[in-house]
Amino acid sequence: MLHIENLYASYGGIKALQGVSIDVEAHEIVAVLGSNGAGKSTLLKTISSMVRKNSGSITFEGKALPAEPFHVVERGVVHVPEGRQIFADLTVYQNLMIGAFLRKDHKGIQEDLEKVYTLFPRLKEREKQYGGLLSGGEQQMLAISRGLMARPKLMMLDEPSLGLAPIIVNQIFDILREINQSGTAILIVEQNAYKALAISHRAYLMTTGRIQKSGSSKDLLAGENIEKLYLGGTN
Ligand SMILES: Nc1ncnc2c1ncn2[C@@H]1O[C@H](COP(=O)(O)OP(=O)(O)O)[C@@H](O)[C@H]1O
Ligand SMILES: [Mg+2]
Over 90: is that where the pLDDT of 4 sits? Predict the structure, then answer.
């Protein structure tokens, strides 16, 4: 579904991606793991066209992804950014509607709203509350739900566990699995390697702009030097 070959990206002189190749098949959950500064966020930003690539190719369903971020969303690729980035001065409902801003199928939007409220009943309870008043966990739920409102084929998540209590992380990861089982492919980048390996089918380990290792998540979890490689969360 998503095919990335030999991708390079940089910020001025800083080489953030140095020949990254990854694939995500439809219906898969794929994790990209790596410590702070490895290039994980840059990879997602390059896919969603928020950062321009220097070279390499990114194709989705056999065609190159467009250069404008909102056109990427139109192709069915949604980015749930690091740090949630929800609108503090808008209500939960208004934040969700922003996720649907490119759509005109009112009936479908209504259906998807019901779906996210079923996945996250807390958001329904807080429908009229301002985004800025939500807890960190609720904000992450809102960020994921806003992404779902675009009805994505591929959802990309940047460190959804960051700063959240383990119990909330578990809830959110359970729901990501549910979202995947209902037909959405997921590309997740995480420092919390154990959690990400537990829900993903395959994973890539990234260090300083390069893929160092890849394999089935089961095999990687069983690997002996795994703690050394992962550097991030331990629970
Ligand atoms: N906006 C930016 N300007 C300059 N350098 C950046 C910027 N964003 C990231 N970098 C650098 O690019 C490298 C990769 O960063 P990033 O993709 O954020 O890594 P990760 O998400 O794995 O922590 C790091 O060296 C980081 O300092
Ligand atoms: Mg990052």
Answer: yes
Q: Please answer whether residues 189 and 32 qualify as being in contact, where contact means their C-beta atoms are separated by less than 8 angstroms.
A: yes
Domains and CATH numbers, the chain: 1-76+153-235 (3.40.50.300), 87-151 (no CATH)
pTM, entire model? 0.94
- Pick the ligand that lies closest to the CA of residue 206: 1
Query: In the structure, which protein residues have their CB atom closer than 6 angstroms to any atom of ligand 1?
Result: 11, 14, 16, 34, 36-42
Interval 100-119: pLDDT, tens: 999 999 999 999 999 999 99
- CB atoms near residue 70 (< 10 Å): 12
What is the rounded CA–CA span in Å between residue 69 and residue 52? 11
Beta strands across the sheet bearing 185-190? 77-80, 154-158, 185-190, 29-33, 202-207, 210-216
Q: How far apart are CA 221 and CA 198, in angstroms?
A: 8
